[in-house]
Amino acid sequence: MVRADFDRRLEDLEAELLGLGEMVEKAILKSMDALKRRDLAIAYEVVAEDDLIDEKRFELEEKCINLIATQQPLAIDLRTLLAVLHIAVELERMGDYAEGIGKICMIIGDDEPAETPQKLDQMASMGLAMLQRSLKSLMDRDTDLANDVWDSDDEVDALYASVCHDIFVEMGQNPKSIEAATHFLWVAHDLERIADRATNIAERVIFVVTGRIGRYKPPESTG
Amino acid sequence: MAVISQAEFQRRRARRKWMGRAFHAMCLLSVCIALGMLAVLLVYLLIQGITGISWSFLTSFASRHPEQAGIKAAILGSIYVVIVAGVVSFTLGVATAIYLEEYAARSKFARIAKINIANLAGVPSIVYGILGLQIFVHSLHLGKSVLAGGFTLALLVLPIVIVAAGEAVRAVPPSFREGSYALGATRWQVIWHIVFPLAFPGILTGVILAVSRAIGETAPLIAMGALTFVPFTPDSPLSRFTVLPIQIFNWTSRPQEGFQEAAAAGIIVLLVILLVMNAGAVILRNRFQNKWD
Amino acid sequence: MQNQEPILQTRGLSVYYDTKKAVTDVDLDVARNRITAIIGPSGCGKSTLLRCFNRMNDLIPSARVEGQVLFDGLDLYGHDVDPTEIRYEIGMVFQRPNPFPKSIYDNVAFGPRINGFDGSIDEVVEKSLVRAALWDEVKDRLKASALSLSGGQQQRLCIARALAVEPRVILMDEPCSALDPIAALAIEELMRELSEDYSIIIVTHNMQQAARVSHYTAFLMVEEARVGFLVEFGESRQIFTNPEDERTEAYITGRFG
User: Fold this and answer.
1) Which residue of C has its CA nearest to B189?
2) d(Cα C50, Cα C32) in Å, to the nearest integer?
3) Residue A136 pLDDT > 80, yes or no?
């Protein structure tokens, strides 16, 4: 089989990218867990492990550059390598957001056992689902699945608006909770960004399959 | 690990070496024999004939007296006949070769023609003499002249020229032809500007081979009526003539010792002329030698 | 206002060698003043197709052409068309540089001379050598043998020779495959400059070269049943980033079995 070596390297590269995705998923889960249970030890782990995520991203970038330089990729090979490059960056940024949540957890400390807004949890699980779906769409080269990721983003945005509204109301009613509330605002922000980055990944998947670059355009309603 | 023992290997190696040396020696011996025979011939010739070479020998006519015999008529006759033969075979031969290789290339006609031409080279030369007698001497009323003799020899050596010219034309790389066609050249322009100039050295070689052959021919010229005793120099293309080989042959069949010397001297002259012609040819060929390889 | 019509078009073009088909039913439009590349695996008929444009296939006795090749609307294979006339308008550069064993000057002057050109040959030679980016290197030794030049220079000389008869189209049959990479890049640069004034068609088996140098690319393929048919034709930037046909993609990514 011609180019068997190149094919193998591409497969390995994608597998490593999915591995990076798993690392990020774990980081998000752990950071939310730490936040809910005010577990400082786990929060600390999340922050420390972000370095590994960064390293992995740079490793992937180097491999991509190497393959582009040595294999003269064209058409789908070129698009795949460029997509891997971009997605690695998106994943690394998502890891940073998870780290951010961990840091907030460390700042909050274990003093006030204030309630973590339940909607944050919802946002987190939706964001995670979007990440998983976008990575699966890459694995299967499934543009329909990639498009689904977009639909979920609207829901996340709605949740975000709602959470913010709730927090502002709380702040107004209970001035003592302002500090804690601000922290939760940040967490909400980070979770919204995680979801957003997942849609970027979906965009890249569509690029790989169809060659189309650009912002996602929702399908025109017929009629 | 070795398949055969060390001792066996050494023995076989020694035998191979010995065989190599024996073969080398055999080849050397063959060369010595061939060159040796040639050397003996030359030396014998020189001994026999060198005393006979003198200005008077070269400028006198043949005579019944061996001391007065000269080869003036024979030399001039040979030169004239060979010039005619050379010019005619060159023109006809080159044109034929170009037609067969360029215009009719790869056609059935060309294939058949080429086979037949190659076969013609093997026809005994006396046949050409008889042909010459019938066609040139009688039918075309040229008489037993220099012209008729030249034409006869031209026919004889034509196959040589055609084959050599054909090879020379074939040897011109197709890339040059393609390049000229691509510039809008017609077939004629390609042949005239590219093929012919590049094939010229090869053609020249063919002509030289042909002329060298022609100058030594005896039988066909005797058959078409060349004289053996010529007390005059040919003064026109239609005059009668003799050539060196015939004169030499004539002298060797005379009993007198003097004539044997004269014959040897004549052979030396013939060889010298051949040598000079070939040397000239090599010089000419080197001058035109192609710088494309 | 520049003419946007294609300068060369083929309609249902097929080429046979005796009974063997080498090119099958090709419809192709060659854009004016652009570089069009023809790519495809070995034996797919690219060179045969190229040689239809200047009727060089006429030189092969067993070759037979069906269909039309239109040059500005004129059918090149029409009854009263003289092939040698066409070749003044449509020139060709070959895979191995083939300068004649004459001087540099005589090489470039060859075309105009056999053409019966009666103007200043000196001017034509200089102009052509300048346009082929070779003048500066050889202007002091025009009488030197063409064979004393390097491979890349010889190929540029062949290009100058082709330019000397003022063609409108230049056909290039793998012009760089016998050259070292630097010389090849120099030729590619020259092609880009020339495409402003000439329409160029290049056959190449070097994918990256086709991608670098051409505006349009045609992909020819050979299968069990069919030889030399056109699979895809389009803008090069499209063909090399996102081709429409999966066979094209298989070929340019080197996944051809």
Assistant:
1) C114
2) 16
3) yes
Q: Please check the confidence at residue C159 and state whether its pLDDT lies above 90.
A: yes
Q: How far apart are the first and last CA of chain A?
A: 49
Lowest-confidence region among A119-128, A172-181, B63-72, B168-177 = B63-72
Q: B179 — contact with chain C (CB < 8 Å)?
A: yes
CATH code (residue A94): 1.20.58.220
Q: Say if B31 falls within a structural domain.
A: no
What rounded mean pLDDT belongs to chain C? 93
A3 with C256: Cβ contact below 8 A: no
Number of domains in chain B: 1
Question: Which range of residues forms the domain containing residue B179?
Answer: 72-288
Instruction: Determine, yes or no, domain membership for B279.
Output: yes
Cβ contact (<8 Å) for C114 and B292? Answer: no
Minimum-distance CB partner of A2 among C207, C242, C255: C255
Question: Among candidates C214, C241, C252, C243, which has minimal Cα distance to C31?
Answer: C214
Expressed as residue numbers, the domain containing A13 is 7-210
CA angle B259, B260, B263 (to 5 degrees): 85
Residues 6 or more apart whose Cβ sits within 8 Å of residue B7: none
Of the listed ranges B246-250, C169-173, C233-237, C249-253, the one predicted with least confidence: B246-250
B chain contacts of residue C99, beta-carbon cutoff 8 Å? 179
Query: What is the C-alpha separation between C80 and B185, in angstroms, rounded?
Result: 18
Chains A and B touch (3+ CB pairs under 8 A): no
Q: Does B108 touch chain C (CB under 8 A)?
A: no
pLDDT of residue A223: 41
B154 belongs to a structural domain: yes
Chain C interface includes A76 (CB < 8 A): yes
For the segment C176-207, what is each residue's pLDDT rounded down to a tens digit?
999 999 999 999 999 999 999 999 999 999 99
**Out of C87, C91, C101, whose CB is closest to B292?**
C101
pLDDT at A218: 62
Between A118-140 and A75-108, two packed helices, what is the crossing angle to 10 degrees? 160
Cβ–Cβ pairs < 8 A, chains A and C: 34
Nearest Cβ partner for C147 among B173, B182, B291: B291
Q: What is the largest CA-CA distance in chain A?
A: 70
Q: Which of A74, A77, A206, A209 to mutate to test the interface with C (most CBs of C within 10 A)?
A: A74
> Does the residue A36 lie in any domain?
yes
Which residues of chain B have a CB within 8 Å of the CB of C87?
181-184
Polymer length of chain B: 293
**Chain A touched by C37 (CB under 8 Å):** no
Collect all residues with Cβ–Cβ distance below 8 Å to B273 and sequence separation of at least 6.
B75, B78, B215, B244
Q: Is the pLDDT of residue A111 over 70?
A: no
Please give the model's pTM, rounded to 2 decimal places. Answer: 0.83
Q: Residue B249 falls within a domain, yes or no? A: yes
| Maximum alpha-carbon separation in chain B | 87
Tracing tokens 């040819």 back to the chain, one arrives at: B281
Residue B24, pLDDT score: 96
In a domain, A218, yes or no: no
Picking from B178, B183, B288 by the largest number of C CB atoms within 10 A of its own CB, the best residue to mutate is B183
**Residue A222's pLDDT is what?**
47
What domains does chain C contain, in order, with CATH numbers?
8-252 (3.40.50.300)
Q: Residue C241 and residue A211: Cβ atoms within 8 Å? A: yes
Our count of domains for chain A comes to 1
Smallest Cβ–Cβ distance between B179 and the set C85, C88, C100 belongs to C100
